[in-house]
Amino acid sequence: MKADDGHFARLLADLPELLSHNRTFVEDLQSRCEFVVVKKGDYLLRAGEVCQNAYFINKGLFINQYINEKGKECVTGFSSDDQYPFLSVLSYFIKSPSDFEIKAVEDGELICISRQNIEALSLAYPPFAAYYQNAMLVIISKLYTLFTIRQSCTAEEFMSHLYEHYAWLVNRIPDKYIACYMGISNEWYCKLKKRVFKLN
Questions:
Q1: pLDDT 10s digits, 115-139
Q2: Other CB atoms within 10 A of residue 21 CB
């Protein structure tokens, strides 16, 4: 469905004032966006599809996951309305079928912008091009940063890091998805969580 003024409050607050106060830009942006409602468990992208859109999360929590040839799920990242509200996958950048999926962990509401419209807005409004490029760099950076920390820590150290720096993640995401991201069983994750919470 088409997005209206009420759907854009969070995105406009995230934009530089130079853009959010430019009525021509705002009207152009709104005309190029779709408002998407998803239910918990819905997919924005399935493996094998080419990601043609980027999303801004107004409400909800999403995971990126990889499914191996044996059907095993591997969670590779998290995005929410509180943290990292822009959502996309590598397929968007390289324009090839995705190995990854985007799944809703909560009921969600998003603003969807197609690649074609992002490119048109970027050409017409250079400040938007800079803003969007930075948003995409944040997506890449947050994936690598958390992955690097996980690889350099023990499971208990990483759990402590999540508790200290990613409380939103620990408090909102079901344990099974964090355990999957860490590569440990759900039972072991729950034991670690209790141990770390006692220390903090």
A1: 999 999 999 999 999 999 888 888 7
A2: 11
